[in-house]
Task: inverse folding
């Protein structure tokens, strides 16, 4: 079916884990095997590549993992791979294991590493996996939907207790540099306010919103704060408490809970489609690209375009979050 001379590929997960990485690994392994391509699993991301932590993967090795969060290949953040010597060492390891191309499932930093390999002669296909949804060129990354569902579940529960005690809750979502999760959560959880890294929100505005909610007789006030926001949830809560804005305030940092759990149906299907397409792109000679969800289609987008551009948040959704918070 496909034209390729590649006989052996590697597959790895890298950077922060994301629910859905396992279904992606499964799809890569089974699609490759069904095309007569051998698959080697690279453990612990670039750390494992540098240190030759490789293992052969057969169809049974990826059985029973569709519903599992995390990544069976484990993951890591490697400083050594960022250096030219580290990259040369990794390439030597790949070559001695007979790995001719690599599928890399991960976020922005992992795809930047993938581009380095591609530029030095190792064919690479990237698959976007990050709960932050901060990767340029794809509508969605693996793990975003599951993380959002975790956030929704948590905020719904927090609202119950907030209403019972007439309290304001500052809920911190993940997203080091990107407010995607916070904005979406703000809309779908009916938050009174959403604070994100992309915009400066003066404290006075926050205090006003909380006080206003109290005066209008709301039984609770939910403020979603993205991790990377200029003022963090604890600082905001302390200042609000000091000002006596009506509600008593509490903080919940959702943290790494958002990265775990079994992938949703959406994430399993997206990850599976990405995995199948990654192998198809590789076998048809389209390398140095990322599988990107564009509308309903999965298209190949050059890694250089992906890593040299910043994804921006939808102004429409930010506006929506503001309007509906009234
Ligand atoms: O990039 C994904 C992410 O979960 C960010 O939202 C968060 O800032 C970061 O990873 C946390 O990294 P670590 O798991 O290394 O603490």
Result:
């Amino acid at each position: 079916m496909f034209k390729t001379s590649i006989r052996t590929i590697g597959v790895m997960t890298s950077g922060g884990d994301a629910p859905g990485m396992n279904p992606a690994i499964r799809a890569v392994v089974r699609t490759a095997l069904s095309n007569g391509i051998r698959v080697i699993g690279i453990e612990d991301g670039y750390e494992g590549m540098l240190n030759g932590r490789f293992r052969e993967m057969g169809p049974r090795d990826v059985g029973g993992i569709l519903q599992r969060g995390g990544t069976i290949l484990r993951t890591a953040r490697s400083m050594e791979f960022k250096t030219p010597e580290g990259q040369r060492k990794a390439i030597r390891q790949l070559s001695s294991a007979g790995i001719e191309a690599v599928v890399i499932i991960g976020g922005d930093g992992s795809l930047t590493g993938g581009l380095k390999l591609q530029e030095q002669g190792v064919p690479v296909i990237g698959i976007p996996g990050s709960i932050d949804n901060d990767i340029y060129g794809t509508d969605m990354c693996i793990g975003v939907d599951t993380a959002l569902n975790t956030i929704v579940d948590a905020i719904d529960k927090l609202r119950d207790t907030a209403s019972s005690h007439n309290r304001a809750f500052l809920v911190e979502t993940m997203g080091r540099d990107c407010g995607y999760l916070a904005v979406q959560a703000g809309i779908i959880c009916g938050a009174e306010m959403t604070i994100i890294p992309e915009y400066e929100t003066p404290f006075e505005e926050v205090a006003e919103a909380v006080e206003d909610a109290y005066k209008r007789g709301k039984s609770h006030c939910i403020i979603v704060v993205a991790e990377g926001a200029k003022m963090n949830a604890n600082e905001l809560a302390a200042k609000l408490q000091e000002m006596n804005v009506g509600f008593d305030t509490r903080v919940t940092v959702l943290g790494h809970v958002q990265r775990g759990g079994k992938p949703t149906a959406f994430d399993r299907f997206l990850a599976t489609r990405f995995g199948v397409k990654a192998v198809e792109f590789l076998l048809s000679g389209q390398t140095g690209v990322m599988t990107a969800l564009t509308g309903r289609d999965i298209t190949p987008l050059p890694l250089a375009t992906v890593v040299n551009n910043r994804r921006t948040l939808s102004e429409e959704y930010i506006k929506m979050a503001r309007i509906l918070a009234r």
Notes: The two ends are 56 Å apart (CA to CA).
